[in-house]
Amino acid sequence: MIRRLPVPLLLTLLMPLAGCQVSASTTDIVGRDATLAPEASQTTAASAAEQTDTAAPAVRQDFVAWVADFRRQALTEGINAVTLAAAFDDVRYLPRVIELDRAQPEFTRQVWDYLDTAISPARIQQGRAQFAEYRAPIQAASRRYGVPAEILVAIWGIESNYGSNFGSFSTIDALATLGYDGRRPDFARSELLAALRILQRGDIDREHMRGSWAGAMGHTQFLPSSFEKYARDADGDGRRDIWGSIADVMASTASYLTDAGWRKGEPWGAEVRLPDNFDYAQTELDVRRSSQAWLAQGVRGVRGTQLPALDQASIIAPAGARGPAFLVGHNFRTIMRYNASTSYALAVALLSERLAGEPGLVGDWPRQQPALSRSQVKRLQQLLNARGFEVGSADGVIGPNTRRGLREYQRSLGQTPDGFATVGMLERLEAD
């Protein structure tokens, strides 16, 4: 018999939208398309005690009117009166949700800081213990969908610390607040309607439909629309329960990855060693070659092993020439469908290896390098543009264009053009 976990009611939120598998706009530590990790996934947000309704009366009245209008629309789209009453009779506006939605953190973290947390010894130890305790449902999902069990457990660990921190916000209250007052109201309204359909189907009740401030729910942080598409009832009780049934959690997560294109039996990639004369302009995910083509350039496995056989593989070097490099393939990009952050996918991949008993990284991170703040990144971009190394808009976000401009600047200095932004690089630009 599959054990059910108790549904936590007063947990601290650790994984907002950027930590869920269907984030429409994932923000990385330094940029949306940078090879760094989602800073929001490392930000401690509000506890349940912070969710009290402190809105001014005028705002509350506007919210009440918005809810009433939404109820009428939902009724025309097939949501019955009983479900609407259960969802909205006691609905609350949550000011903390809006604070989090509009937050633009200034301070950033380096990729190794993110990975230190994501793949900490405690998380590895706990993951192995959870794997042992729930081996039957985990392996059942792995066999059915062809996704390695360790990958499923790693996602579970990173998304919610194995269910201990999947959020205490009411999904209905959070999505109603965002639909009324958020930055993406149409998206929130669509997710709210999906949440109502889930309630109406009977998979969960309103009280226990809880998760992040952005509406991501359960152990592996599904938004309601993804729940509708990919959630599975693996324990046969007639409900898709990603809050309390580990069998359902694992089957649902594997279902998502399979639909995203997971290739059974293909590795995610491997840590590699790059030759001294390697062209770091190739370290972008849109540069894809076979493992044999990379081998011909001098790329080698770090432990003398053969490169995994991948037909469309990329090289990523999150810390440029100063840190580890990785050969990543189709399944790595599939993990990024869960969360569109390179470092998120790297954390899942590396944690899965540690859960399987494999050793850690061979390469060292340049831990002496402090992270650039967003304002510092913006200043760096402005200086590069002013000196003719075009990077596009100075938005404080490091992506391919900024890395390309940095490489050109590094070449002009006779440095290794790896595109890795540092405080020293900013200071050099300031001095020029």
Q: TL;DR?
A:
The chain is mainly α and 432 residues long. The protein is built from 17 helices and six strands. It is globular and about 70 Å long.
Rg over CA atoms, rounded to whole Å, is 23 Å
**Global outline:** globular
Outline the biggest β-sheet. Answer: 4 strands, antiparallel
Structural class: mainly alpha
- Helices and strands, in order, run as HHHHHHHEHHEHHEHEEEHHHHH
- Kindly estimate the percentage of residues that lie in beta strands according to DSSP: under 5%
Low-confidence stretches: 1-19, 21-57
End-to-end gap: 69 Å
Estimate the mean pLDDT confidence: 88
Number of contiguous helices: 17
The largest beta-sheet arranges its strands as 4-3-6-5
Topology, number of strands: 6
Roughly how much helix do the residues carry, as a percent range?
A: 40-55%
Structure description:
- This protein has 432 residues and is mainly alpha-helical.
- It is 45% helix and 4% strand.
- The chain is built from 17 helices and six strands.
- The chain has helices at residues 57-76, 81-88, 95-102, 111-118, 121-133, 135-145, 149-160, 171-181, 185-201, 224-230, 246-259, 291-296, 330-338, 342-355, 374-386, 400-413, 423-431, and strands spanning 169-170, 210-211, 269-273, 300-301, 314-316, 325-328.
- The strands form two sheets. A four-stranded antiparallel sheet has the order 4-3-6-5. It has a two-stranded antiparallel sheet with strand order 1-2.
- Strand 5 (314-316) and strand 6 form a beta hairpin.
- Helix 7 packs across helix 14, helix 8 packs antiparallel against helix 9 (185-201) and helix 9 packs across helix 10 (224-230).
- The longest helix is centred in the first third of the chain and has 20 residues, at 57-76.
- The protein is globular, with a radius of gyration of 23 Å.
- The protein starts with 56 loop residues before the first helix and ends with a helix.
- Mean pLDDT is 88; it is low at 1-19 and 21-57.
